[in-house]
Amino acid sequence: MAAELVKSERRGPVGLLTLNRPQALNALNHPLMDQLEAGLDRFAAEAAVRCVVITGGERAFAAGADIKEMDRLSAAQMAADSHLSRWDKLGDFPKPTLAAVSGFALGGGCELALACDLIVASESAQFGQPELALGVIPGAGGTVRLARALGKARAMELVLTGRRLGAREALSQGLVNAVFPVESYLREALALAERLASLPALAAAAAKKSVAYALDHGLEESLRRERALFASLFDTRDQKEGMKAFIEKRKPAFTGT
Predict the structure, then answer these.
(1) Which residues contact 234 (CB under 8 A, 6 or more apart)?
(2) Beta partners for 9?
(3) 46 is catalytic
(4) Out of 56, 111, 140, 205, which one is annotated catalytic?
(5) Active site (annotated) includes residue 58
(6) Measuring CA to CA, how many Å separate 36 from each of 29, 87, 111, 162?
(7) DSSP line for 31-60
């Protein structure tokens, strides 16, 4: 029987995926990422799930990739391995995603958190990209997403020196959205996820697409894309309900359609 490397559960409209390889500080090997990908696929297909939270343990969210899986690979073998594309799949996930991070979020673990839409951290969280010490660079989006989140100078510093950001510094730099005590960070993350899950699903998906598009394209193109997405929502029931509820001064009852 395969080990349960990712625990999957429903908490109302929130899907919770918990990395469960504590003896290796949740190092992201192929079997763990297989299970994480499967969990994401299930929640993507489940209409009742409106938001997904990914978390680990108090000591480690994920301390990086599993070096033992890759230390003997050639460049050709690594290029042919689709393992790193899993982080992109999380970045493209159609529903809001939230990383609840405590302890180490290093290397691939930092990249996993960065691929989520929002990050809630505990006061013990540490973010970093130490790959240069292994003779490589971040390969699952670390250089790209750090540069977008922090700008060139700070991204260069973290990637080239391997320096870690503590939770409070990560908050001040805009890398995370909120910081809470270790004993309450997951509870607070789930409460935020509940709020995200209450949003009209089609509008939330469109908002994600618009922000992601703006990161890859120029201002004029991005504004055109935003206007097109905005207009498309006027054929949804949730737009009619949301505006009617506003006019009638009541709480909207969104259906995700």
Answers:
(1) none
(2) 16
(3) no
(4) 111
(5) no
(6) 11, 10, 14, 27
(7) HHHHHHHHHHHHHHH-TT--EEEEE--SSE
Please tell me the predicted confidence (pLDDT) of residue 104. 97
pLDDT of residue 1: 59
User: Could you report the average pLDDT of every consecutive run of 10 residues in the chain (257 residues)?
Assistant: 89 97 94 95 95 97 88 86 84 94 97 97 97 92 94 96 96 97 98 96 95 93 96 96 95 92
Q: How many Cβ atoms are within 10 Å of 220's Cβ, its own excluded?
A: 8
Which tokens belong to 159?
A: 């990637």
Calpha distance 88→12 (Å, rounded): 26
Q: What pLDDT does 26 receive?
A: 96
Residue 39 is a catalytic residue: no
- 11/6 Cα distance (integer angstroms): 16
Residues of 23-58 as b/e, b for ≥16 C-beta within 10 angstroms? ebbbbbbeebbebbeebbeebeeeeebbbbbbbbbe
241 is catalytic: no
Q: Report how far apart, in Å, the C-alpha atoms of 44 and of each of 37, 92, 198, 231 are.
A: 10, 11, 16, 24
Neighbours of 167 (CB within 10 A): 26
* Catalytic position from the list 113, 131, 197, 205: 131
Q: Which of 27, 60, 62, 65 is catalytic?
A: 65
User: Alpha-carbon distance 208 to 97, whole Å?
Assistant: 10
Give all domains of the chain, ordered by start, each with its CATH number. Answer: 6-197 (3.90.226.10), 201-247 (1.10.12)
- What residue spans of the chain are helical by DSSP H? 30-45, 75-80, 85-91, 108-115, 142-150, 152-161, 167-172, 185-197, 201-216, 219-232, 237-247
CA 49/CA 187 separation, integer angstroms: 18
Give CA–CA dist 99/114, Å, rounded. Answer: 8
